[in-house]
Amino acid sequence: MTVAIDRATGKRRGDREPGPGLGGRLKRGYHKHWYAYAMIAPVAVVLGVLVLYPLVYGLYLTLTDANSLNTVRTIGVNHIDATYKFIGLDNYADILWGPTAYDRFWSHFVWTIAWTAVCVALHYTVGLGLALLLNQKLRGRTLYRLILVLPWAVPTFVTVFGWRFMLADGGIINSALDALHLPSPSWLEDTFWQRFAAIMVNTWCGVPFMMVSLLGGLQSIDASLYEAAEMDGASAWQRFRYVTVPGLRTVSSTVVLLGIIWTFNQFAVIFLLFGNTAPDAQILVTWAYYLGFGQQPRDFAQSAAYGILLLAILIVFTSFYRRWLNRNEQQLAI
Amino acid sequence: MSTSTAPTPASAPVSKENPVKAPKAPKAPRRVRRRGETGLAGSLASHGVLTVASLIALFPILWLVYLSLGPDKDDYLHPGGIWDKMTFANYTFVLEHTKFFDWLKSSLIVTLGTTAIGVLIAATTGYAVSRMRFPGYKKFMWVLLVTQMFPVAVLMVPMYQILSDLKLIDNYFGLVLVYCTTVIPYSAWLLKGYFDTIPFEIDEAGRVDGLTPFGTFFRLILPLAKPGLAVAAFYNFLTAFSEVAFASTFMLSDDKYTLAVGLQSFVSEHDAQRNLMAATAVLIALPAAAFFYLVQKNLVTGLTAGGTKG
């Protein structure tokens, strides 16, 4: 799909002539690309200072026993120096193999994986279905589109409040279920139903992004392909299978990857829906936040260690995903 | 396909008041159906599914608005009673008794700051990555993707320390910088995709006519990339507007709270007063919705214009 032509020079990439030495290459590269680097510099600086440095520092914190009782702090007029010490990999060992590691890490881990898989699958299928419907010639489709994007346009914490009203014990959903003589579960207390509710709310919030992205992808599929398929007598299903699906491949692989990353790190929905009342419905991100900021004493080191583990999981996953895409000769849209 | 809407319980109460509108089929002579047109049954089914989906999308928001009109704190348990005693009292109470306008001001400063700075920086980055094959550009895109993966928990403590070293705690600019780190990577990705769809000949023409690389970018490419920029702005605005975790940690004085944090603190103070909570939530949703309708026209073209190019 990619036309491998260097857009700056018009040369074909890949078979460049043997370059000069490293120093000379750097110098030439600098002369040719200085403005590219200048354009990237602001991002590089901001990300370097506010993301990479904190990451390195956070990595260091995970090797210590820092918590809110032994870090630098000021009580009244007294400035107290940090007294935490280096303890090596003990935090990781404790999280992964320590006593009650199953309750603290592995149960959350399994739930996080299930949460990510279910949410992204629902986002994608519902989003694709709606996008296909909106891509037809249909009266009032602009209006439908406007309404369907609304869950994305309203800030998450507002909509989550709305859902809390609806899911509360005497809320509208349980009243409606009662009226239909169906059992009315306690959505915000029972573990299973908490998880169900979290997935439901997150699906509601996440579908619009998928829908709009896939709609954009659908609209960029060349109409003549459908025409040709129809001439050859392809049925609707065959047109979907052999024209639409391949046409959406690059968009799909990108939005699915983004969706997985965002859902895996989805903080707002679960945190706002349950606060600290649902220890078993916490995914790893909210659990790490709880350890570091939601309890006393705040356990910074463990919290950061969870964060690093999360990051490691995502990076491993992404590299496998990338390799899998490469094997199928698909391209991420980057 | 048409059944792929997830059956959420919200559809149960709304689907009753959802008669599928049956347009009267005109008694026209049989005509040949053209390509792209669906039969009557198909279009009825599409309308039905889309109407149900729209109702599901709308209902939680409308319900919140409706509840916010009830004057009593337990009204959400007896929603039927609200209809007779609707009042805007909750809104006036919230506007008069909280620092709503202070919060709105800080929210707007932080959000618009993030949007402006974020879009500008993301645009230069996206352009550089889209047009110039400098060494390491692909790695750079992956670095941007990886920054999306950082969980809040790792960054919070170190960021707090850096910001307090830079004297940026409790400071609008500090929060803007923090938000930029979260919004720029995706915006840059998005804009790179959009710039990829703008023909490279335009750049060449600009260069031939003597524009510098920056001149080409600002005077030719940016005006052409408006849909992409609008989507990036939308994304930045919403992300910054609804962020809670950083804002509640980094903003300390209560007249500098953003709306999201203000609502949180208001909730913990007036825990039982759900009618007031609902009213605050609606007030907060208004600026975001207004911004959304400003840019929504560009949403579909802007979001994936480039996503289809390899």
From TrEMBL, chain A:
Subcellular location: Cell membrane
Membrane-traversing stretches: 34-60, 109-134, 146-166, 192-215, 255-274, 300-321
Region of interest called Disordered, as start-end residue ranges on this chain: 1-24
Annotated membrane topology: Multi-pass membrane protein
PROSITE patterns per UniProt: ABC_TM1
N-terminal signal peptide: none
Gene Ontology cellular component list: plasma membrane
Family: Belongs to the binding-protein-dependent transport system permease family.
Name of the protein in question: ABC transporter permease
From TrEMBL, chain B:
Domain ABC transmembrane type-1: from-to ranges: 104-295
Cell location: Cell membrane
GO MF term list: ABC-type maltose transporter activity
The entry's keywords: Cell membrane, Membrane, Sugar transport, Transmembrane, Transmembrane helix, Transport
A Pfam family annotated for this UniProt entry: BPD_transp_1
Membrane-spanning parts: 40-66, 108-129, 141-160, 172-191, 229-252, 272-295
Sections of the chain in a coiled coil: none
GO BP: maltodextrin transmembrane transport
Top-rank taxon: Bacteria
Main location as per UniProt: membrane
Membrane topology value: Multi-pass membrane protein
Record's GO cellular component terms: plasma membrane
Annotated segments matching region Disordered: 1-34
InterPro entries for this protein: BP-dep_ABC_trans_perm, MetI-like, MetI-like_sf
Compositional bias annotation for Low complexity: 1-13
Family affiliation: Belongs to the binding-protein-dependent transport system permease family. MalFG subfamily.
Protein name: ABC transporter permease
Organism: Streptomyces griseoruber
